[in-house]
Amino acid sequence: MRAGICSRRRGSRRSEVTRCDRSEAMEISVPSETISQIWKQLNEPHRAGRNDGLRTAHKQIVQDGWAMDVDIQDVIWETDDRADQLARHYDTFAFLLEPYKLRYETRLQGPFAGTDTLYGHSAMRISEAAAYIMEIERLGFSVDPIPIVETVRPTLLRKKYLTNHEVSVVRYSKERHHLSETVLRGEPRPAAYFNTITTHSGYVATAILDESGNPSTLRVTAPKSRRDFPLKHWVDFELRHGSAAVS
Q1: Structural domains of the chain, count
Q2: DSSP state string for the chain
Q3: Mean pLDDT along residues 203-209
């Protein structure tokens, strides 16, 4: 359910071999404002957009094999209105695209023969949409990628080669809530204290804050993670050497 930490080495036949360690924590540099937006919403009460159990947005993505940004926003809204606020109004989660090599592309609509004008929309392929929603879940939000994962997984299993995000989709049921933490790191600022909360979905979110209560670093740990680096040790290190290291 994550891109993993990848390194390259020279392989045979003049090729490079990429090794990805999926047990390593993922650290991403983001604007401090983004961390503040996520931290604020994680502290809000969980609110599902729908209470009837219907997953209409999931059905649309499964039917089309593609997801426009509004489709992904609707999937998020159906399960966690806090995340929807960030996705729909601020585009807060866009920083997740690059680390996981996800992208929107132009999806053109047929018929393609006998016409000089084609119309299309920016959209994401279904496997990438599933991976994108999975990474939002890893930030502690109660979103639900399962209907999309279950649809695309059989197709992926028939392929000889998979991309990193496709491997994440294939292994989702095994790795869900087990992977190492995600750390978001903003601009350095003096660290004064920390605060820890447990989200509605059981993720543990810990923020390093300055004297004004603005977070500069956010660590989110899965409920079943092995926690290779204990929270107390991480907080002690951050308060002494991390965000506090400002000249």
Answers
A1: 1
A2: ----EEEEEE-STT-EEEEEETTSPEEEE--HHHHHHHHHHHTSPP--S-SS---HHHHHHHHHSEEEHHHHHHHHHHH-HHHHHHHHHT-GGGGGTTTTT---EEEEES--SS-S--EEEEEEEHHHHHHHHHHHHHTT-----HHHHHHHHHHHHT-S---HHHHHHHTHHHHTTTSPPEEEE-S-----EEEEEE-TTS-EEEEEE-TTS-EEEEEEE-TT---SS-HHHHHHHHHHHSTT---
A3: 96
